């Protein structure tokens, strides 16, 4: 995000919270996943940015929307004090594995992805892919079907 801000491709609008509760869990390698199951989980805290179309292309690539890692979907958020409401978009776990991920995590979610969870994150360059295809999305399927 810092790179996009420095190139004037996005603007930080501040901390916001989802209007509806959603599950938020950590998956394989500590990746955070917002799960599109409105009404379950918690109202989730996060950051809101206004992103230009050029920046959005870069974010979609980073989030793996073309390989069905995340889906970008509409969401309603509000400022933490409730004074400002906005329509936005968020990256949700892909629909192919969202329910299984929620179940694997015991149907227990977080209200935010904090520094504690961030310490468990494994950078992409440091990940060991175990699937025979060499695909991270296939590794997620392995993670969900085993005690991985």
Automatic annotation (TrEMBL):
Keyword annotations: Acyltransferase, Transferase
Q: Name one GO cellular component term.
A: cytosol
Q: Does the keyword Ribosomal protein apply?
A: no
Q: Which molecular-function annotations from GO does this UniProt entry contain?
A: acyltransferase activity; gamma-glutamylaminecyclotransferase activity
Where the record annotates domain Gamma-glutamylcyclotransferase AIG2-like, the positions are 20-95
The annotated active site, in chain numbering, is 63
Q: Which InterPro entries match?
A: AIG2-like_dom, GGACT, GGCT-like, GGCT-like_sf
Q: Which residues cross the membrane?
A: none
Q: Which family does it belong to?
A: Belongs to the gamma-glutamylcyclotransferase family.
Function text: Putative gamma-glutamylcyclotransferase.
The protein in question is named Gamma-glutamylcyclotransferase family protein
| Provenance organism | Dipteronia sinensis
Lineage, top ranks? Eukaryota, Viridiplantae, Streptophyta, Embryophyta, Tracheophyta
């Amino acid at each position: 995000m810092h790179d996009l801000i420095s190139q004037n491709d996005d603007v930080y609008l501040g901390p916001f919270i989802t209007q509806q509760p959603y599950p938020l869990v950590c998956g394989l390698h500590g990746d955070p996943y917002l799960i599109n199951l409105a009404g379950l989980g918690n109202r989730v805290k996060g950051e809101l940015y206004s992103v230009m179309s050029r920046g959005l292309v870069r974010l979609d690539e980073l989030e793996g929307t073309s390989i069905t890692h995340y889906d970008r979907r509409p969401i309603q958020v509000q400022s933490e004090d409730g004074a400002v409401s906005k329509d936005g978009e968020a990256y949700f776990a892909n629909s192919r594995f969202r329910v299984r991920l929620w179940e694997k995590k015991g149907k227990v979610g977080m209200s935010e992805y904090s520094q504690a969870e961030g310490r468990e994150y494994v950078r992409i360059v440091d990940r060991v892919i175990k699937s025979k295809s060499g695909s991270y999305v296939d590794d997620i399927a392995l993670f969900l079907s085993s005690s991985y």
